[in-house]
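Reopening this ticket.

The earlier resolution said the output was attached, but the attachment link was broken on my side. Pasting everything inline this time so it's all in one place.
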Amino acid sequence: PLSRPLPVSYMLDMGTLETVATLSALAHGTRLETFNLLADAGANGLPAGEIAARLKVAPTALSNHLAILTRAGLLTQERSGRQLIYRANSEHLRALASLLVESVKAG
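Inline output:
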């Protein structure tokens, strides 16, 4: 619990909102596993069906998780024929890690 309320300027800072969205997206086991799988896959990424098969997740459930990760900026998607190829946006995660390290140093 906070001992005092956060200033309004802090709460409305888009960087803060983006950070919260990113952390929230990763705060689920399946989404974290999905991000890690795609980070390991590298620049080639993986089609949604292969991600579902590897993680043993129903395609409909995975679709929701992929949408959340994509909206949070953690994944990119590209259509290849009839498939959607997903890739980890590692730069976004590096920026988050850097922000968190700076916050710890400042605090």
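Reporter confirms the inline version is readable. Residues 4 and 10 are 13 Å apart (CA to CA). The radius of gyration is 16 Å.
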